[in-house]
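Feature request, filed as a ticket because there's no other form

It would be nice if the structure record came with a short human-readable summary line next to the tokens. Right now we just get the raw output. Example of a typical job, pasted below so the devs can see what we mean:
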Amino acid sequence: MPDYGHDLRFGSFVTPTAAAPQQAVALAQLSEEVGLDLVTFQDHPYQAAFLDTWTLLSWVAARTERIRLAGNVLNLPLRPAAVLARAVASLDRLSGGRVELGLGAGGFWDPIVAMGGERLTPGQSVDALSEGIDVIRGLWDTTTRERLEVGGTYHHVDGAKRGPAPAHDVEIWVGALKPRMLRLVGAQADGWLPSLAYLQSFEALAQGNATIDAAAQEAGRDPRAVRRLLNVGGRFTADGGAGFLQGSPRQWAEQVAEVTLEHGVSTWIVGGDDPTTLAVVGQEVAPAARELVAAARGTTDGPAPVAPADGGARA
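Raw output as currently delivered:
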């Protein structure tokens, strides 16, 4: 299934530097001004050189009006799932439905432990992420008045009150590379959010999609329920370049459209803190890429209808 039919989105991946805190805010505001759909920030709570990502997301939400916001990705080992569920729902309601939830299982365990987190094996971290998603979705589900009980080993609640529900169906995007995490994405998540620099090839992207699709089908889900996102880097050159996203805005648009149609990537998140790059992506690359994809599909660039990620109603 090379093209999952999702609407094309473009976003920024801004460094949450603490030394110049207003820089991140200004780049988020610029992202909105130039027409980008999304602004994201990495989340390393143990990194003293960075602002706290959740505080930054809340501040940026108050300083913008339209753009979506997400962690890229939030560090679940240091953010208890039940509290995170309420924080996300609260900010989504305050921002008018503009928050999405990027989640990661953790990876830098020495600093996580130094901050009071528990050291987990790779297998345990996947189990913990699965349990965390169950807790988050359960607390968001206000279609029932029954208190939530999730008896996980790493994330559990014992009779928690549900709510508040988010203002919209918040998408849960998971940063994943290895097979077991990819299978979790297919079974439970709304999106797969890797970085091209870590994947290193489009062959790896295709293999990841195949693993996710198989897991989704095994779980009784339509693979189109999983949005495919990608963190990328690149540069604009006047004379054209050899390589992916190394050329003119038109070359970028053509390459984005090609990968969208061949590998299903529908959300492109551009890293770096250069205002000119963000402006060109929002004002030139995004419109051109949308036109190319719409022409190839023979339709307007709109989302394909899919089933909810959890297979049931969401408030």
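Something like this underneath would help us a lot:
Confidence is low (pLDDT under 50) at residues 301-315.
The first strand starts at residue 9 and ends at 14.
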